[in-house]
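Backbone shape codes:
===
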Amino acid sequence: MEEKKRITSFKDLEVYQNSYKAMLEVMKEVVPKLPDSEKYDLKDQLSRACKAIPRLIAEGYAKRHQKFGFQKYIDDAMGECNEMVVSLSQARDIYSAQVNNSFCDGLIDIYDKTGRQLYKLGDSWTNFKRRQT
């Protein structure tokens, strides 16, 4: 049985690590390939949402001692994951000549998984806090 690593920082969370890595890939491989006409729309949305997810996880972790503080940030990060799924689908479907479709599909899967991980993290944390009281 694999020993679980102790969580001492938001950086120890797998969901943070995965979302940060995906953000780098979006910013390096997808956003620059979109046309300039998308500067204030799809490029902007992808940039903001992918950067927001690891930030929200980090900020939520700092508020994990608050009853509702942590959950609010987890919920917001899940919403940003959903936005990434839609925005990456739009980039893939509208600009298939500019972006790598299979690369976008891989990122869509990562953000879908990240949303599920965030849900489980919020649920686990809520149950853990209940057991402590």
Summary: The CA atoms of residues 17 and 64 lie 18 Å apart. The two ends are 29 Å apart (CA to CA).
